[in-house]
């Protein structure tokens, strides 16, 4: 994707974990707090990081499977309640905003509306964004609880596009994992894969299949967006005259 391609973009949807914030340490902490309360062993950061992307219910189920447990509905419910409580108590105590993201969001805020589209439940996502200082810049937060199905289904992106009043084809999805790219493809949105996230080889393969734009740094995205807006203004001025 070039600055010419971005000329057709009217809004941007960001994934949260692994895209805007390096929240894996906090997700691990919340998961381990929940597991410890249930008398189950904890997991290392690298292990938990590889599980991030499908929301807390999938994360908890994966942890139980690693323990050789299917887990009753009651146990999963207790773990989820403990996970949510730990997250809300310390949304971003151990993690941080990725380098360059604050500048990216501040720069884009002046030119393009932004939303967050995440498989994290909305209350948890808003708490993390607030702790990161990014919440005021967002026109909306769409968590897994706001649609019939989470990413990679298209519904969260469709809801965001409706709220923003833009066509899906003019809403850029920026994320770090396969679910982000597949959701964009299903919704008819262009997509960008960030290089600094948690997606790894699976995301790279999905990016190739979805023809996603690969973004090396937040600065690259900001610069390209600024250049595209300049090109668009020039084109609009030319049409007027």
UniProtKB/TrEMBL annotation:
Molecular function in Gene Ontology: phosphoglycolate phosphatase activity
One Pfam family here: Hydrolase
Annotated metabolic or biological route of this protein: Organic acid metabolism; glycolate biosynthesis; glycolate from 2-phosphoglycolate: step 1/1
Reaction(s) catalysed by this chain's protein: 2-phosphoglycolate + H2O = glycolate + phosphate
Similarity annotation: Belongs to the HAD-like hydrolase superfamily. CbbY/CbbZ/Gph/YieH family.
Gene3D superfamilies cross-referenced by the UniProt entry: HAD superfamily/HAD-like (3.40.50.1000), Putative phosphatase, domain 2 (1.10.150.240)
ATP-binding among keywords: no
Descriptive protein name: phosphoglycolate phosphatase
GO CC entries: cytosol
């Amino acid at each position: 994707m070039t600055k010419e391609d971005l000329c057709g973009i009217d809004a941007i949807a960001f994934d949260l974990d692994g895209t805007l914030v390096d929240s894996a340490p906090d997700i691990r902490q919340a998961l381990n707090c929940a597991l410890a309360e249930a008398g189950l062993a904890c997991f290392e950061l690298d292990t938990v990081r590889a599980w991030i992307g499908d929301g807390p219910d999938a994360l908890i189920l994966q942890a139980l499977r690693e323990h050789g447990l299917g887990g009753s509905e009651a146990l999963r419910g207790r773990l989820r309640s403990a996970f949510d409580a730990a997250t809300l108590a310390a949304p971003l105590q151990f993690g941080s905003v990725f380098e360059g993201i604050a500048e990216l969001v501040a720069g884009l805020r002046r030119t393009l509306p932004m939303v967050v589209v995440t498989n994290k439940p909305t209350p948890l996502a808003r708490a993390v964004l607030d702790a990161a200082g990014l919440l005021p810049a967002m026109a909306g937060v769409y968590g897994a609880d706001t649609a019939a199905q989470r990413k990679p289904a298209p519904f969260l992106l469709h809801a965001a596009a409706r709220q923003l009043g833009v066509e899906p084809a003019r809403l850029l999805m920026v994320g770090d994992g396969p679910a982000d790219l597949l959701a964009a493809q299903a919704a008819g949105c262009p997509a960008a894969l960030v290089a600094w996230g948690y997606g790894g080889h699976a995301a790279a393969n999905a990016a190739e299949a979805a023809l996603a734009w690969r973004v090396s740094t937040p600065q690259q995205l900001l610069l390209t967006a600024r250049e595209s807006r300049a090109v668009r203004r020039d084109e609009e001025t030319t049409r007027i005259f």
